[in-house]
Amino acid sequence: MTAYLFHLTAKGHRVLRHRVLTDPVLASTDLFDATAGEVVMACHRSHYPALIAAYGVISDCARFFSPARRALLFTAEPGSVAKEFLSHHKIIAIWPEGESFVRADPAAETGGA
To answer: What pTM does this model have?
Structure first.
């Protein structure tokens, strides 16, 4: 998270470390990128139970920053199933690659009935 924070600030983003108080526990957003309008939470694993837990926490925290996009920061590139899950739920996946970070933005919705 610290490396991503430095990455964003080096690009000129205004980034805030933020904690959200929810009753009865503290939920962590980890950071809010005010420039991009993104709530970012660290997610150390990309298996299904971790994704479900992260989805719940980030979705709840995002309501305090409305409107805001939701992003999960991984330690490594998530697999295709995790990326599909995140895209379906309109969550950005971010992970380190070399000295920078890669983003997988949610797929654009296609028309249809």
So the answer is: 0.85
Nearest to 107 by CA among 77, 85, 78: 85
- pLDDT tens readout for residues 34-57: 999 999 998 989 999 999 999 988
- CA neighbor of 70 nearest in space, from 80, 81, 79, 85: 85
Burial of 18 (0-12, 13-18, 19+ CB in 10 A): middle
pLDDT tens track for 23-33:
666 665 688 89
Cβ partners under 8 Å of residue 51, min gap 6: 43, 82, 85, 86
Listed residue (99, 42, 96, 35) closest to 65, CA to CA:
35
